[in-house]
Fold this protein.
Amino acid sequence: MPSLARTFLLGSVVGWLVLLIEGAGVVLLYVVAWPYLAIRASVRGLQTVIDARVIRQGTVRCANPRCGRMNSLVGLATCRRCGFTEYGSLLACGNCGDAESMTTIFCRSCRGPIQIFHN
Ligand SMILES: [Zn+2]
Ligand SMILES: [Zn+2]
C-alpha cells in the first residue's frame, strides 16, 4: 500500500473515531442532563398546582415573615400595560387580558411585593 493512501486511510479512521466520540459525548450529555430536565419539569408542574390553589382560595399569604397577612386577590388594580383601573381580579387585566404585568401584587399591610407566578 502506498504510504499516501495509508495516511489517508488512517486519517479517515481517526476522523470517524473523533466523530464517534463526539456523538457519544452528546448522548452522554443528554443522559447526564435528563434528571435535571425531569426535575425542572416536575417543579414547573408543582408550581402550576400551587398557582391553581392560590387562585381557587382567592388569597395569598405575604412573603414577609414578619407580616404573613393574607391578601385578597380581588381589589382595585391598575394594569401596567394599558393603564386600565378596575375593581376585580389582581391577576389579570379585565381590559386587555394581560396577565404578565400582574404577576406581582403588594401586601396591603407592609407593602412588600408578593409573587403569584414563578415562571
Ligand atoms: Zn391591561
Ligand atoms: Zn405583608
